[in-house]
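Input:
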Amino acid sequence: MKDLKHLLYFENLLLEANNELVAQAKKDNKVCVAFTCESVPEPLLNLEGTFSVRLRAPRTGSMEMSTYYMTSFLCEYTRALLERALEGGFNFADCVISPDGCSMMNRCVENMELLKTMNKDKDKFFYEFMEIPMKCDENGLNLYILQCRNHILKPLSETFGIDTSEKALRKAVEEHNRICELIRAIGDFRKEENPRITGYEFHILTLATYVAPHYLLIDKLEETLEELKTREPDAVNPYRVRVVLTGSEIDDMDYVKLVESCGAYVCADRFCLGSLPGRVPIELNDDDDILTQVCRHYITHSQCPRYMNMPKMTGRRDYINELAKEYNADGIIYEQVKFCDPWAYEKMVGGRVLEDDYNYPVLTVDRPYSIDSGAGQMRTRVQAFVESIEIKKLQRGGING
Amino acid sequence: MAKKIGSEALGRFYKEGSKVRTRREWRGVKDTAYDFSRWLVIMGTLGKFIIKPRNMKAMLRYRWMANYLAVPMMVDRHTQGLRGEYLRMCHAEQDLIIDDVAKLLDKLFKGDRRIGNDEEFSKKVVLVDENEMTAVMMGFPMLETLSRETPSTYVPVLLNQHSMEYYMDIAEEFGLAPDVCPMPEAEAGVSINDDAPVLGACAIQCNTTCDGSLLGNGVISKRLELEDGIPVFQLAAPLRHREDDVQEYAAQEIRNAIAFIEKHTGAKWDWDAYFECAKRVNLATRCRQEWLDMNKTDYPQVFGSNLALYTETNYMAICGRVPAFAKVDRKLTKLAEKAYKKKKMMAKEYRHRAIIWGVQSHYYFDFLLWLLNCWGIVPLTDMLSMVSTKEIAEVDTPENREQAYYDMAWLTENMIMRNRTHGGYKVLLDELWDFVEEFNADMVILWEHMSCKALDGMHGMFEDRAREKGINLVWVEHDLFDPRIISRQGVRDQINNYMRTVMREEPIDPSLEVLPDDQSW
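Output:
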């Protein structure tokens, strides 16, 4: 296929946390709200005068300092973030809003605060920690609303004078939805039998929407969507099988690329920093206030394994089944960042359920934060998985065995 | 001669490769007779338990039941070197705990579909987590509050250090990453292996101490609800439990849990019973506070495993629901006051005053006593004993009935371990140093449970603070339930090395420095 016109541009954006669009937004006098988890509703961080950046640490190398502070037993994502913060790599941020989601992320941001990594010489800098509900019910929703009000809207308004009115929130949601609609429209091309976009390309586009100001991205995303409408796929589909990739956060540009290089087309991205469900538009009505609607959307759509009630637990596996059907997947890859407790359990149970109850071939793997350090092993696992699916297809004469 | 504290070399009782010690300790006529009489009482408790055919059937059905043969040995480990009041304190609490666990097992097997299969009894049973505060059951005296994980997972490791290895391996073979905390891992392994009693009208799970515990519950509830047909309520206690803006949510969770129990059991919440329990919770709090106050002086009395093991049971699993524990609270206080007045000491020499912080090794719970006997390090208190000191409403008034939901929520949020591993760094990091000052400690022994992410995540800050304050900080790594990773001697060596190389001291009882207890119960 012909290269996407802006792919290199998007790839370059992802090489640094402090990318050129972040720098441009800062020049525009916008407040940068850094966040670390999908449980912090993004539209509330992208108000008039603010923009959000989901923290990540591209091109991570040594993590010696953060390993001293958090030991080698914590997940590499959190250690990489702390290391980058200690190096000054997140100094562009004006505040950090973090949920007490998993213990490791919580400790990571607490260390950032204790070590004064980002707030040197910044009078207005603040860290906020949110309590996030663990169940999708009315009580959880009420908590979520209160937490968003107390730990996002109030500090942004009081510290930086940001307009958090109903009108401002509605506008933010509409802009957020525009990004989501673009990403979803682009992602829909992955349903094609011989898709005109690779999983890697889609991952790059999606990832960029988490780490760069939305208002500076829209033009290029629109242009890319237009370009895709007429893009011709290769005559022969280079992929041998189609997989849903699911699990803990993936912000490593190379991971999806590696999976696809083994012949497995990533047709659906159900992981944190992916588009499913992270880029599902928020449907607004005129009855409830916007904050309630945003919180309801997040609590309902979240697929994070920390949601502990039974409908959410079974729902996570049902959702993957639905995606596999919708995107015509042959198999499921469950991945977790090494030392991630929530996904260690979800991977085990989900992997078994998808395999035993839904009859999908499933590969479960743990991986380093940066796949560079474990590429050989991962390649072997994925190649073997692809072959096993092919063999099953041959033996049973069809998709899904 | 052996009547005197520290007169026997305690390390001589261990024998390479043996599960039991070579002989009982000689403590002088009076204490030896007392100790032996309590040993007989324990044997009587075990005898009464096993004589029932259904319990014998359970012994053959459940792999973990074999560990209960080691009960007397566990008590012996916790009484090493003890004399007088300290020996009596240890027996008062341990004998009660043994009795309580025996009753728990008996009830579990009575209702267990595979063993006793008493359906009427089973309809009255509400299952709870092992690490869960049972506050939400304080107003249900007509129901049985039973934990399956306590006897199948938690207690066996106290009895036999190797007891959970099998179940951890099961979970890992099933696909669980081996770097998670071994406690929920073992619980999940028991469930995966279908090795837990099946009974109950419903179950209440709670996001207790950590992410692993929360997620491990998912494995258990999948079997309970989807396979065994026992409905499960997940009680979500807020993590940032010191914040005002989470308390209403927490209280509502309690209301919802009570409504769930009422719905599935047909029982009605009993306020009289609740406030009776509340009085006993407050009594336990006052007693514990008095013991801790004594421990701030030169003559600490209730400390080490006498404090840790009892607090874990009484505060969390009992939570005012069993009157016998109130009696023991008073007895322990009386014994402590008596010893305090006489300025008695538990060991012949106190060299260092230590706060024990972090999550202690479960397969080496008597380590605290070893610290004292071997090196003269007094474990003044431990993280798991530093729980809520707030007294709850105990008089039945309309206002207090509303307050009660917040009190139950507060207790649930502040269950053992969880009140420190959750709630931000202030409760884990900052308050440690406040306690160091309050207790006039010169040493902090910091358990580094390798798979406890909440603790590990503050490793560097602990180091930095200790350095700033000039406190001796000793790290002791372990893997909670798995002595294959770091053995008991591996735990001891970390202290031995520190004491010899940094403190340049010699042990008080050199026979304890290296013990051949790898195979020991």
